[in-house]
Design goal:
Chains A, C: Pfam families: CoA_trans. Chains A, C: Its EC number is 2.8.3.8, 2.8.3.9. The complex is a heterotetramer, with 2 copies of chain A (240 residues) and 2 copies of chain B (220 residues). With 240 residues, chain A is α/β, with parallel strands linked by helices. Chain A has 6 helices and 11 strands. Chain B has one domain: 3-Layer(aba) Sandwich (Glutaconate Coenzyme A-transferase). Chain B has 5 helices and 16 strands. Classes of the chains: A alpha/beta (240), B alpha/beta (220). Chains in contact: A-B, A-C, A-D, B-C, C-D. Chains A and C meet through α5, β5 and β7 of A and α5, β5 and β7 of C.
């Protein structure tokens, strides 16, 4: 395992992680994983590996952070992105909508090694959004009459039943961006957008892995999909 | 009995006839994906991919794959002119909000009240529901496209036994044997594959089929 | 008053207004206002006139449609956009967050001529979004302990109280777009985006007034902010 | 007593000292808007405009107005490099979700428990709450910036009489007389304008002021 590099004193101290300042947000992947410790809840963007923040996730695998609560749409494939966190048994609890593409997830779940909460995909996206939006949860018709409703409150509105699903936050969100300016303003590309915009609003520390980092002002204000105020740190991504 | 691939294409071809010009359609992974091969040239269907876009096109040619353009099954695909990318919350605004006209998906079990089970077999196979629960809850028309039976076992039941995906949501069941509509009175056999007798279809179906006077031959 | 032009037979018949087809969506402003009749509920995009769909609104003023339920952020200024609908006494019920810039709104309210439901701006946006998203309403902390909460259900989630605010739909939404392709895909410009994207999802008939109409394929799929599936009709806008 | 504009600028200048480098700030219409004139050059404040953008800049020069760039009061404004436009739902994700560090706004009444009334006088003036209810509910710090009294009448009360904007949300009240903090024990006078005595301020305030040992002179 790679030696852990101590976060340099230049970085924002722990106490102010939740606040996004206009200080230099660019950090190394080592600085990024040094903020992520055993037992944390971590949201990771991507949909079946398209695409996880591969560089940071690989560094997390290398560092061997344990007992993670992982929040993601799926667990990718065993050899791809966050799939490795599962294979490497770094995840204690998983909150996801789909685990069928990574057999190891089902194996660990059936063996009682991994606690899995399956959430309908639309509910997952909306629960994360609700957390970021300061809403008390969502009222969805999805899951009514199924085991997804077990133990949850139902609310009747104008004669129709809805499930009350609670907001979902994390300690850290690790997301991907295609073009990211130095203030952290993000533009996503194509089908890689998926859960990233919501996750950016719903974690104490938000780290974006950027395909490309550009100067402030290079992105048209109409083209930015996640405002930089949500982003604490930027890591330049690489290719897996 | 037709060969496996013939059956799949037969079903997919018949499903395609349910799609109308301008429909927004979400096709599940597997058999439902084949439906896109049978859409007539004179109508335009807008395919929704729940991972985040509208206007999904055909699979790319070899060597032209874009790693940022994959479908909800993780396979390379393309986007037609006029297509749109969005995030997962907006994707499910479209789905849950009733803006998908037709969703086509497979089933482990479906019953005469339109209940659907397609996301888990407890203790055995638990892939998760992905977007299926939202899709069947939100889409205007839900079509189950599948083989009529599984290894000789009934899939079209009086009452689903597996954990449900949703309650009372299925509108049509299309199999290699026929087209069934879920109605308030029960399951009506609307069309039949002329290779089978009504008795054949009933034997392959646990639910009691209602046979209307105007039962038609399936046009696939 | 201008003579009302009969909707030509080429247009989609009444029965299928709710369905968006790939038929030609371009219509004249006369065709547009002919779909909008007395007593309908109408959502109109814009924020203090920046910018209402001026061409269609002016035609509504000219047509004299009455007893409208108007849903909008505000009532603009007396001489601008939807402000004229108020001055012209075409509105029976108003749902808005702010009416201070159009004194006529307050006058009619105080005189008992206009029924006004004031909604916090964030709640208004989210209620419209909820309607479009198939959600049963929203759970917001905004308005708790104020008269906004009167007669509404409160729901406690994890020890905090939230107000249950119901989804808000309309018969017709009239929105603005900066660049609109012939399938109805919309790109907004700058501060004119405001309520338009949510309204596009929450009405039976959606009409966009476009600054510019472009060919299908001219807009990058990443740049489109409202998919054309939400848009029934396109009217080429003009300058007021 | 200072002249009206001097008073406004005095208050705005003191409010500006509450803003920290990197803060996301929403300034209400009127007096609060003046705060942006007093932000020190060595810190960067990101102004949020609830009608749909971040990174609001100064008013445009005459002849350079962009009709598509107006603030929440409908006045022409500009966007700084790095600014971002978004829709009203996303704007209130930022506001309600706790992503605005400081909101500065005026009040008709404010009380010692941090209750605020600033959106209606029943039967007289009902402009509506606009974004104010969401702003004071969601922002991390709520600063009321206003004249200490209105035509000789108290505005800082034991208990608000007008319909509330929100309950127990105000953190600081900054007037031409001083800086007051809402605490669990009541209203603490943190700073005082040396032109006034403690007694002057108390007389102008219905709520009982707590005077701490370390009461400071206001630095505006």
């Amino acid at each position: 395992m790679k030696e852990v590099v101590i976060v340099s004193a230049v970085r924002t101290p722990i106490g102010s992680f939740g606040e996004v300042s206009n200080l230099n947000k660019l950090i190394s992947v080592d600085d990024a994983v040094n903020m992520i410790n055993d037992g944390m809840s971590i949201m990771v963007g991507g949909f079946l590996g398209c695409k996880n923040p591969f560089k940071i996730v690989n560094a997390l695998v290398e560092k061997g952070v344990k007992n993670i609560t992982l929040i993601a749409n799926d667990t990718s494939f065993p050899e791809v992105g966050i799939g490795k966190l599962i294979v490497n048994k770094q995840v204690k609890k998983l909150i996801a909508s789909h685990i069928g593409t990574n057999k190891e997830t089902g194996n660990q779940m059936n063996a009682g090694e991994l606690d899995v909460e399956l959430v309908p995909q639309g509910t997952l996206a909306e629960r994360i959004r609700a957390a970021g939006a300061g809403l008390g949860g969502i009222l969805t018709p999805t899951g009514i009459g199924t085991i997804v409703a077990d133990g949850k409150k139902t609310i009747e509105v104008d004669g129709k039943e809805y499930l009350l699903e609670k907001p979902l936050r994390a300690d850290v969100a690790i997301i991907v961006g295609a073009k990211v300016d130095k203030k952290g303003n993000i533009r996503y590309s194509k089908a890689t957008r998926n859960f990233n915009p919501m996750m950016a609003t719903a974690a104490d520390i938000v780290i974006v892995e950027a395909d490309e980092i550009v100067e402030v002002g290079e992105l048209d204000p109409d083209d930015i999909m996640t405002p930089g105020i949500f982003v604490n740190y930027i890591v330049l991504g690489g290719n897996e | 009995m037709m060969d496996k691939n013939l059956v799949k294409n037969y079903i997919a071809k018949r499903v395609a006839k349910e799609l109308k010009d301008g429909n927004v359609v979400n096709l599940g992974i597997g058999l439902p994906t084949l439906v896109s091969n049978f859409i007539p040239d004179d109508i335009e269907i807008i395919l929704q991919s729940e991972n985040g876009f509208l206007g999904m096109g055909p699979a790319p040619k070899e060597g032209e794959e874009d790693p940022y353009v994959v479908n909800a099954g993780g396979q390379y695909t393309t986007v037609n002119p006029g297509g749109v990318f969005f995030d997962s919350a907006d994707s499910f605004v479209i789905i849950r909000g009733g803006h998908v006209d037709v969703t086509v998906l497979g089933a482990l079990e479906v019953d005469e009240r339109g209940n659907l089970a397609n996301w888990m077999v407890p203790g055995k196979m638990v892939p998760g529901m992905g977007g299926a629960m939202d899709l069947v809850t939100g889409a205007k028309k839900v079509i189950v496209a599948m083989n009529h039976t599984a290894k000789g076992n009934h899939k079209i039941l009086k009452e689903c036994k597996l954990p449900l995906t949703a309650v009372n949501v299925v509108n049509f069941i299309i199999t290699e044997m026929g087209v069934m509509e879920v109605t308030a009175s029960g399951l009506v056999l609307r069309e039949i594959n002329p290779e089978y007798s009504i008795e054949d279809v009933q034997i392959a179906t646990e639910a009691t089929l209602i046979i209307p006077e105007d039962l038609k031959e399936i046009q696939a």
